[in-house]
Protein 1
Amino acid sequence: MTEPPTTHMSEAHTTTDAAAGAATDAAVTAAVGALTWHRGRVHRHGVPHRILSGALHYFRVHPELWRDRIRRLADLGLNTVDTYVPWNFHQPHQDEAPRFDGWRDIERFVRTAGEEGLDVIVRPGPYICAEWSNGGLPSWLTGRDVAVRSSDPAFTSAVGRWFDELVPRIAALQASEGGPVVAVQVENEFGSYGDDHAYLRWNRQALTTRGIRELLFTADGPTELMLDGGTLPGTLTAVTLGSKPDAARQLLAARRPDEPFVVAEFWNGWFDHWGKPHHVRGVDSAVRTLRGIIADGGSVSIYMAHGGTNFGLWAGANDHEGRLDPVVTSYDSDAPIAEDGSLTAKFFAMREALGARGPLRSLARLPTLPPTRVPLVHRADLLAGLRAVPAPTSTAPRPASFERLGLDAGMVLHTAHPRIPPGEHRLVLTDVRDRALVFADGTLLGVADPDAPELPLHGTGDVVRLEVLVENLGRVNYGPGIGRHKGLLGPVLVDRRIVQGWDSTPVALQEWSFTELAGAVAAGPASTHAGFAVATVDVDTPADTFLALPGSSRGLVWVNGFLLGRYREIGPQVTLYCPAPLLRVGENTVTVLELERLGATLELRDRPELGPPEEYVEEFG
């Protein structure tokens, strides 16, 4: 269908019923916002305009650094910043209202961008992908029997309640209200997932009925399959790509001849998985594609312009042929503005391609602490430390999943007391998501995961205290695997007999208070190779630093009670970025939870080490 040569469209009707939305899809009226389009060109308040945007996620950058990173985007030559909104970050628990304070103060982030002279594009989802846990959807919702990302009323009613809280806040910051928000995305790359157009229409209407009057757009990969599933009549079609902009331009011109060419995500780098290479993209390759996008009036959003960090346990995972590929803590993404804000060679080459002029306002690199090594003191064993933090225990014939326990991330400690006959036996965890440490009477038997679910178990005829510590390594953020449950999902077998009668205790590491963390550390003495350790770092003037744990295997790091993220010796990421605002003058405490083998040292470095690089360019076939 050829679009009328006007502005973006919004639906005239107000009903939220998907069927009614389908029946009245043609009944749309023009709504003029700051950005409009006419005969293949974008205009801003009637003046020819090119959107030069960069993705920067407020939830991946410390709030005290928001202004610095936004200013760096402006120095790059951009006129717009775009951000996703992760629902699960704002509302991790169903029985608690969404939060919009502190790190979750998206209104402050948007206002800050406006104060720095940038327009803002908001991408509220509710699904965002973004290599973020569960694609931004709350696990308390996906844990139900609900068809996510569909017109299933069980899903849309929950999204509607979330949008009731979120969207009016965005609407109040629109350009039409004197704010910087100039565009809002309808869902996110829906054509890569499904073809429920009633849901897409519902999503568009959910935005307009809650006050959105600025430009609406969809964003999908530039293939017939994806555009068929993810686009709507009356709504601007943007694409996401890493290469071949000319082919994408031709495809859109054939389908939407009057619309401008807008690339909502230009992947100038890529993210990393644990145990895989560190992805980079050469400067010449990235700049050549960027020039191809912005030629002839094309608009772009550089994804990522500044990647930031998957702090805490918010990193997502991909499902690769049935195997989980967890995303690393760093979200540097080989962006022009590095994870610590440094201006890279790619920054300066892109700045030239974008035609930026004038002096830079930002330092090429922020100060760092001097490199040093400090002792890592083992304080408490693993199970003793975890047991020291009070948590409600569920008792049932079978182990409770993370979802049954209301736990999004972290671990669950399952305990049972089977009698094991004399001799050698097979202990089988038939469906563990994602990884389990298995103990018998306090002694580690080994590690079980989907690739190696079986362990040997020696019996004496006595009852054994069997403990299974299950770790969630990251929730799938893309594709049909979104919303999969975590935990011991299948029976635990001793030979052919099912072990029944389990106590399941959630270990909500991401939600631990400083007091709870200190309680775990104080549960010593330590006698094994795993558990809780502490290092003390004295700081004269807080500055950025990069933490490394030589000799340690895998675990988590807190800085002054803040959960920085995961580390794993398999790499590629070696150092964890610690931004200056997490440190204080004087004594700072770094706490480590090591799951397998604790080293003796914490290193503070003045440079990141993200692993051996491998060139990678994402392409659609």
Protein 2
Amino acid sequence: METESEPYVRLATLRQLHQAVADLNTARSLADTVQTVADGIVTGLGYGLACVNLVRPDGDLVVAAFAGNSAAEALITGRIGSRASWERRLSMGEAWDELRFIPHTDGWVLLDDDVPQWHTEGPEPRFEDEWHPQDRLYAPMYASGSGRDLLGVISVDRPRNGRRPGAWGREALQMYASQAAIAISNARLRTNMQRALVRLEREQQALRASEESFRQAFEYAPSGMAIAEMGGDQHGRLLRTNDALCRLLGRPASVLRRYSFADLVHPEDIGTLLRTSAEGGRAELRLGRRDGSYFWVSLRNSVVADTTDGPRFLLTHVEDIEERKRHELHLAHRASHDALTGLPNSAELRSRLSSRLCERPNAVGATAIEVLDAAYADLDAERDARGHGYEVDLGPEGLYDHHVHAVAPDTEQDDGAKGLAVLFCDLDGFKSINDRFGHHTGDAVLIEVARRLSTGVRDGDTVARLGGDEFVVLADGLAAVDAADLAVRLRNAIIPPIRVDGRAVRVGASFGIGWAACGMTAEEVLASADQRMYVEKRSRSKANRRAG
């Protein structure tokens, strides 16, 4: 079972990984791109050393970039390893999907081959999964397309946590290698196109020769390319598109000439597009296909001059990043949700609860509300329509600061005020099911309880698994009596038998109702609800003993 700190570590690592991937496409040259790939391994993925080996035209691999150790970089950068030696390494060891791990027990046979390498000194491992100084981990990079030609190999060493990467770390390294291959391919493409643009500025004869080279690079580029008008009334109108972009958008070139990118972008991303419509502009946004669906792309612009001092056009490179975005969402979901039930986990619960609370308690009294009601005659109707029992913070100067304070209802008088209810649920009898029938049955019970709780709440309410057999429900806009009724309904939903492998088992549930109020921390709110649950469980136990 993962610790409470691990989701935070995953989220922090995911942010670093996202930044490292974003940095790949900001380098202005192939050399900068390759060095950025190596630096991203060290800064974003948590390895002490990273080496990027690129395939040369003759098939051998050259050390193109190194990060993590300046002494090692000076010694091995520019050195060459034969293709045969690299093929041998990529066929050895353990296959972690597309990654290749060669433990030190197998790697001794490679010490004398011609592949440039560097190993950090260190003690012998004490644990089974601890990293050995002579362990090797390689991430192949393949060029886009059906041929999957080897573009290069990333080798890493010395994870900062001292352990071999787990499943999540391997997936992150493999995804990064895939994005690095795209960035290197794009850098080479940009270099070729920039050289073509330089030739276009020369004499007319050289211009005609270079134009064919540019046409080939444009038409047969593996990713989408477009030329659009720059300036004037028709700014942004597509003049020319390649086959790859037509396939991405599901529209023929003749149809695309009627559009600009502003016509194709998702309405929520139009501002991003406008900020990108300049030389060197780059953004990630969504474009629409012919069927009405949208997909994520990385868009990058550069300016092309038709002739010296002639018309200027915008050359736009479009890369499909839908898969990478899907991976990011998947990793973010894994970091914030319970693997067994699919509910938000403890870290996500605390995050959602904290987002509703400010650090200072609500100090605005009835007089301030009356003043605000007098100034805004429609506030009462709007507040009643929402069903929220919140008070409005006027701030130190008496001005509305757009924060709506969470206020705990007076549960003793039950005046009908509404607030954010926090229902702490602990299952009764769950431990005996685990002990008697095993963890398989216990897991099935937890999954079914999670389903019943989720079915019993409203859209917009949160059901989270705090850990073990403890669940928490966040329900906004409830009065005290509403929260009590909700607890009864949820308890009644849990009580019916749960069938697992043909066997019917039962669990009960104890609920404690707390209230979130500004000035409290998320931990204080949860502790209050937990204490009320404990009091309820104890009182029910005494009542059962008296009844027995």
Protein 3
Amino acid sequence: MKKTFLIYALLGFGLGSCNKDYLGREPESSIKPEDSFKTVKDLGLFTKSFYDVALPSAEGIYNESVDNIVKSTLDDEITGKRIVPVSGGGWTWDNLRNINFFLENCFKTVPENLAAPYAAEARFFRAYFYFDKLKRFGDVPWYEKVLSQYDEEQLSRSRDPRTLVVNNIMADLDYAIKNLGTEVNDEQVNKWTALALKSRVALFEGTFRKYHKEFNLPDAEVLLKQAAAASSEIMESKKYSIYNAAGTDSYGALFRSVDNIDKEVMLTRKFSDGLQIWHNVNYYTITASYGKPGLEKNLVNSYLMKDGSRFTDKPNYDKMTFKDEVVDRDPRLSQTIRTPGYKRIGGAAPVAPNFGNSVTGYQLIKFVGDVKYDNFNRSVNPMPIFRYAEVLLNYAEAQAELGVIKQSDLDMSIKLLRDRVGMPNLDLAQAISRPDLYLAQDYDPNNVMDAFKGVILEIRRERRVELVMESFRWDDIRRWKVGQMVTRQFKGMYFPGTGKYDLDNDGKDDVWIYEGDKPVAKNIQLLKLGSEILLENGNSGNVIINKHITKKFDEGRDYLYPLPVQELQLNPNLKQNPFWVN
């Protein structure tokens, strides 16, 4: 026992050691619980501390990669180069210690009826914390009290089953739903935010259990019903709506607005010039400093035509040049990337896509604001953490996965998203009778084979288009068990050969793909074939991204992350996730 305690004392991070240094101590800002939690105001001040550490940063939202947005470099999740870390690797528990410390002490001096809303806030964040751990590791130890550094039994526990963790997350969220306020507030969690998180958790876990049959997990349908019910309760409340004050441009306006749009955005991370709190999204999209992010060709192909028909049903769709392929498409495409006629806010003239800032040529504009915010780390538009659009998508997907979806379900979910951009609604009968073969080639190997296959594929399309650049994609790929999608060759715009191209259809050439000596030319992007730009067929075809980097996804291993080596050494009761070798 003395030897084990010495190891705990020396290491200072992870779960094994973190139990002593973090889970088992009072927060540094505290003196004693009885002095810190005397009044309701004290409780409110403490719960505010959860927001900054628990919720994703702006970069954690817009800096999406995987296969929606590709860059000049690839994440280890895509190359298969993840390794078992020595320490860290997401196995950190200090935020949980703060939450449990609060929950143990918030009722000691403040009456229960007054303290309950703050306890509900804390339990929301405990659910949020454990959902992240669940997605990453699967089974994890569930702790709901602050541990003593001498509590060897608890410090050396094995992981609790995934089913128990999910049940406890749901219990925390049910308490939060019952005890949080109902007033709309996009800076503080409320009943509706807790319902949105319950919907998110239940949909993730319900579909994970449905498609990952190798884990033999029960109650997939129970969870999907919970996802639908939580979403439905928000929808029936009429507290939120889809923002459409800017006409068919409302989708783009929602993300670049510096004002809060709390009718759709349920919880947000806010930024301010006055408070000198900024993020970096403008600079991220208009420079080469962050891997030149661009939309991937498969996603571009997935956007429907404006009349609701499929782009990939058009003859020779795969050989269209840029200015032709973007005509009459779902308006969300032109509000996500630069298309002909695009003009920067605060800019005088239209600007074409720039390969110097986007490896695929499909240059991002979602979240991009006024040119005055273009300097490094100077953007101030809010970043959505929960928004009503996700709730609608969760509802439609849960109903479809349960096999009970009706046209009326689509009318009160998908239709609202389509209405915003002036597109026709999704037709259930047509989707079921004519599944999209282009989408099916990605999903068919993974058991989307039932009678509702066609509508499930369409809802997945809608989710991908609506939520792009909001960092949902990696979780979606894992829960649907479609990891092989990230191993495809990533592509960009199509070019029939070398030569000059007018990308924005203004009569002036924007790109010159050349061979041999570099031409002398002004006001045009010069790209040397074979070095600065690679085409699929050598001297023609789609732009090829990361051609020489092998992508790999291990179906038996890569849906979960490995536990760090030090934690396994400290606690012999912890077992590594399947097929990860230390």
